[in-house]
């Protein structure tokens, strides 16, 4: 019976010693393609966030003076979401140029 207790104690100590060593390390190194995939996924998420932000900013911009219609002589109408352009096909360069235009518009509005 004493031998069984020592064996149990020895196995428990071995397990306690090995667990912290394996805890924070990955089981294997990632391949180059996995790292590239994770990088591309991060870029995709960033571009999608930019598009959403740009669409929100475009909703607040008016295209020009509103036309006088029945009873709405001086009022402007905000564009509906379905009237806004679809920005899913924009490249990051297109998004950056649109952001530059928006910044210029905001600066000119403040002046």
Helical residues, percent:
55-70%
Give a quick account of the main beta sheet: strands, pairing sense, barrel closure: none
Described by the principal axes of the CA atoms, the overall outline is rod-shaped
| Mean pLDDT over the full residue set | 77
First and last CA, distance: 90 Å
Total number of beta strands? 0
Q: If helices are DSSP runs of H or I spanning 4 or more residues, what is the number of helices?
A: 3
Q: What are the secondary-structure elements, in order, as H or E?
A: HHH
Q: Calculate Rg over CA atoms.
A: 30 Å
Describe the oligomeric state of these chains in a short phrase: single chain
Strand content: under 5%
Low-confidence stretches: none
Please identify the structural class as seen in this structure: mainly alpha
What is the fold's blueprint, element by element?
Elements: H1 2-23, H2 32-59, H3 92-110
GO cellular component, one term: extracellular region
GO molecular function, one term: hormone activity
Protein name: Parathyroid hormone
